[in-house]
Amino acid sequence: MTSTSYRSTNQQRHTRTGRIARWHLNSFNEAIFEMVAKSGAQTVLDAGCGEGFVAAYLTSRDPALRLTGIDLSGEAVSYAQTHFGHAISFSQGSILDLPFDDDSFDAVVCSEVLEHLTDWERALGELKRVARHHVIVTVPREPHFKLLNDAGRALRYCEDPGHVNFWSWRAFKAVFSPHFEGVEFRRKHYIYQLVLGRLGGSGLGSM
Prior knowledge:
single chain; alpha/beta; Rossmann fold; 7 strands
């Protein structure tokens, strides 16, 4: 069981109690849910699920969804199992080598993960491999996120997020579009960008 003293940047971000912080995060999670709902998925993998907060939000919005979460951190997975394991299946594993068969899930969600990975294309290949129909990815929008994060760190409100990839809105669309048959892009709160990528079919429109 996870220690009550367990802390991570992601866990602290999701457990802030301020009204503005809660609105900010919930509305971002709602944007992810809207893409999941649009995909029509019934089974969903949250790849790089951390402590399970995004998966828990998706389940709260649609209890019929069958959610699975996976993360490299054993401590994060233990936290997720303790707090959300009654409704969601969590396991430990690498996004670079997902322990699932091809086409295991209707949709795969990967939120705020790829910006941390030097080998992000390998990770994206794994997301596509285990997804039957759709992949949903969110990453920070640069340079706006970095500027706000630098200000937050100066005020000791947040920590260094450890990003190694920095995608502008234009770069995000240029880099991710070729990986899918159809795409729908969306921005949220000026500092987040999302893509709903379709595997096969005639494609989606761009927002």
